[in-house]
Every structure is written in C-alpha cells, then in structure tokens.
C-alpha cells in the first residue's frame, strides 16, 4: 500500500513565507517599515489559514510555521516603528531651534578664528628676502583705521619686480 502525501495548505504556506520575507525586508528599512504592517497581516492570515487546513489533513507544516514566525516578527518590527515615528514627531518642534543654534555657534567660531589669524608673506628673489607680517585682529584693524583717518600713516617702500620671485603665504593661528 502506497502512502499518499497530502499537501493541503502548502501553497498557502509558500505564499505566506514569501510575503513574510518581503514584510521583513520592508520592516527593517527606516520610515518605509510602517507600510510593512499590511503585508505582515496578510502573511499572518495566509499562514494561519494554511495551518488550519494542514492540521485537518495531517499535512506537513514546516513552511507554514516558518512563514507565520517570520510574519509575526516582521510585523512587530514594523509596528515598533510607529513608536519611533511618534518620538521623532514629538521632538521635531525643537530641531529647527537646535539647528539654528549650531549654525550660530559655528559662525561665531569661524569669525573668531578669522579675527585671530596672522598672515605672513615671504618673498625671495635672487637672494633678497622680504617678509610681510599682518595681524587680522580687530584691535589692530581699528588702530590702522584711526591712523588713516588722522593721516599719520607711514609711506610704504616699493620693491622692484624680479622675474624669479617666489611667494610663500602662511596663515598661522594666534597663540
């Protein structure tokens, strides 16, 4: 006597397993995971109906149980993203202020760094060396402006142009 294998519910098990795997992949993607609740519920229903058919006819249940377990886990992961999205929505009203504060801090830091920079220019030509140092601090700039307004500035010497001039510009932070 040949033993007849009954595969009742196996096609539902395969459909549930495939749907559960798709649900799991969607569930672990941030923001997209919320939509995975729908295929997760479909996979749970398919696996449950397939298990009830398989239990009536003593059919194998491995694929059905695997599909059901993966579907439940994926649906729970997807459902948990609702809470994460809720927390993000609660904190969202504070983010623009925080971002603006960060931008202001960075802008202030960059401004301070530029104000405290020293520039040193060295020119070498045929053995002659000329070095020009400038300080970009606010106080020095204000003093130069006041001197210019009073007309008490010194005349600058001019340097003859040479063909082999090498220029080196170095920016140093004030210590």
Record keyword descriptors for this entry.
alpha+beta; 2 domains; 175 residues
Main sheet attributes: strand count, strand direction, barrel closure? 3 strands, antiparallel
Give Rg in angstroms: 38 Å
Our count of helices gives 5
Strand content: 5-15%
**Would you tell me the overall average pLDDT?**
77
Q: Please provide the ordered H/E string of secondary-structure elements.
A: HHHHEEHE
User: How many angstroms separate the termini?
Assistant: 97 Å
Report helical residue fraction. 55-70%
Number-wise, the strands total: 3
Total tally of structural domains: 2
Which outline best applies? rod-shaped
**Strand line-up in the sheet with most strands:** 2-1-3
Low-confidence region ranges: 162-169
Content-based structural category = alpha+beta
């Amino acid at each position: 006597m040949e033993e007849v294998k009954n595969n009742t519910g196996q096609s539902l098990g395969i459909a549930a397993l495939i749907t559960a795997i798709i649900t799991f992949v969607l569930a672990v993607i941030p923001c997209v995971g919320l939509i995975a609740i729908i295929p997760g519920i479909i996979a749970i229903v398919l696996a449950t109906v397939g298990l009830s058919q398989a239990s009536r006819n003593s059919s194998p249940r491995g694929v059905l149980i695997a599909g059901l377990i993966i579907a439940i886990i994926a649906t729970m992961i997807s459902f948990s993203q609702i809470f994460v999205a809720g927390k993000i929505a609660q904190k969202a009203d504070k983010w623009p202020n925080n971002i603006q504060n960060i931008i202001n801090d960075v802008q202030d830091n960059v401004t301070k760094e530029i104000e405290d920079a020293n520039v040193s220019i060295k020119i070498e030509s045929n053995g002659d060396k000329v070095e020009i140092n400038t300080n970009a601090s606010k106080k020095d700039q204000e003093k130069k402006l006041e001197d210019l307004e009073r007309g008490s500035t010194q005349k600058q010497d001019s340097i003859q142009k040479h063909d082999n001039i090498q220029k080196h510009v170095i920016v140093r932070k004030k210590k």
